[in-house]
Amino acid sequence: MPDITSLIVNPPHERNIFTNRTLNMQSIQLLGYDMDYTLIYYDVKRLEKMAYEHVKGKLLELGWPIEHLNYDPEMMIRGLVIDRKLGNIVKPNRFGYIKRAYHGTLPMDYKGMRQAYSRTLVDIRQSRWVLLNTLFDLSVGCLYAQLVDHLDRLKLPEVLGYADLQEKISRRLDLAYAKGLLKDEILKDPDTYIVKDAETPLALLDQKYAGKALVLITDSDWGYVREIMSYTFDRHLPDAMNWRELFDMIIVSAGKPNFFLQKQPAFEVVDEEGLLKPVFESLQRGRIYVGGHAGMVEDAFGMDGSEIMYVGDHIESDVHASKSILRWRTALVLPELEEELACLDQFRSEQSDLFKIMKEKVTLENQMIRIKIYAQRATFGYGPQSDMPISALYEKMDELAEKMSALDKRIKPLAIKAWKIFNPHWGLISRSGWDKSYLSRLLEGHADIYMSRVSNFLYRTPFAFLRSSRSSLPHDDELIEGPRRWETED
Ligand SMILES: [Mg+2]
């Protein structure tokens, strides 16, 4: 008889679910799902190029001299922050210190960064900063950086400054989405823009038949949701089942983050044409609504935040907002994680070389500082003295300095390579040098779990007990033995 547990395979590392706060999936009774880039995954490069070209076209109509500009998919990554005051794009670490910055499309050197930011910490609650929250923001970031170059060359006379430039670009992109212009393009040719995926419908079926209520909560409008969900899901569901039957309730044009933060009126979609009727009482299972608010979902299902988990890809609107007031459990979808982990894996042996050389350097540094203090004591005649004469101490220091400089020559190329893992301009999304990135800090603060795709739930099933790893502290080294992860992977 085959081992039935082998039917559910262990996930490859990049398809795992990563846990910030321990979560028992069996205690979750309702899963709310965002749609765009959560249940439906777009081809980022194609979609962002289309969005970029659209906004560029609108700005060309205003007479801006930008015909020659092109979308560069490598120029931006999620988690970068636009500095509207200085026209820079910055990558802060977890404390908000800026570790890397570009002015327009040009990298800033260390001195420039110090002058601009030595007394400044990034805090995205201030209007000066705009976080690139989702993959939808990459085109805006790219165009902004390119247009800062133009603004500096005085080629955009009607723009009042770096903040005004950001508003002009974002407003045009928001308008294009609001009018449905970009979504019409996707619907005309969904094969080009949507990544085919049979696994997500299966993961949701597992959850549905495990007794969980599923609720779609999306900012997209009903016309688009109906078409795109049917296109993406129906072909992968059992015969005679359509995507609407997967969900116990569908909420469109939700208006997040306010959906989670304040009371908003709800309307019921009463026919296929999208005719609306105001809702005066509670929401009902099996219906489709426009707007409303998260409290109405809790009331309709008789559940509180500890039994509900919301899954989305927008750090502020989806996971921060849903956690901040109602304390829903939260999951963030971060598709880039798969490529980032693959890049780290490729760099693994060089990373280990880098660690080894760094360790050698630390040993030499420790020898150096001890000899230096003996040389100082010998010079000023105080404290315990070394057996070596002072001239020998200085000779030893020269010898160590030479060895360290030789090690630096080996470290430099590896460090430069490490600095460029995942993205040649910005490096990793999750780290800023040795430290966590600002994005990682937000993720840690607001998302109970995170993963590259919703379908990673397949591997862990709807019954998993997701335990957080033991978090590390600087004083842990050499004190704590054994695995830092409590759970085994199988
Ligand atoms: Mg989304």
Care to describe what's here?
The protein has helices at residues 44-61, 110-117, 138-152, 162-178, 181-188, 190-193, 199-209, 222-233, 243-246, 258-261, 294-301, 315-324, 336-346, 348-380, 390-419, 438-446, 457-460, and strands at residues 18-19, 23-24, 30-33, 81-83, 88-92, 98-103, 106-107, 129-131, 213-217, 249-252, 266-269, 276-278, 288-291, 308-312, 329-333, 431-432, 435-436, 449-451, 465-466. By secondary structure, the chain is an alpha/beta fold. It has three domains: 4-40 and 195-336, HAD superfamily/HAD-like (Rossmann fold, 3-Layer(aba) Sandwich), CATH 3.40.50; 44-190, no CATH class; 348-419. The strands form four sheets. A ten-stranded mixed beta sheet has the order 1-18-15-14-3-9-10-13-11-12, sandwiched between helices. α12 links the parallel β14 (308-312) and β15. α3 packs antiparallel against α4 (162-178). Residues 34, 36-38, 312-314 line the site of magnesium ion. The site of magnesium ion has 7 residues, from loops.
Detail the topology: elements first, then pairings:
Layout: E1 18-19, E2 23-24, E3 30-33, H1 44-61, E4 81-83, E5 88-92, E6 98-103, E7 106-107, H2 110-117, E8 129-131, H3 138-152, H4 162-178, H5 181-188, H6 190-193, H7 199-209, E9 213-217, H8 222-233, H9 243-246, E10 249-252, H10 258-261, E11 266-269, E12 276-278, E13 288-291, H11 294-301, E14 308-312, H12 315-324, E15 329-333, H13 336-346, H14 348-380, H15 390-419, E16 431-432, E17 435-436, H16 438-446, E18 449-451, H17 457-460, E19 465-466
Parallel strand pairs: 3-9, 3-14, 9-10, 10-13, 14-15, 15-18
Antiparallel strand pairs: 1-18, 2-19, 4-5, 4-8, 5-6, 6-7, 11-12, 11-13, 16-17
The structure holds magnesium ion.
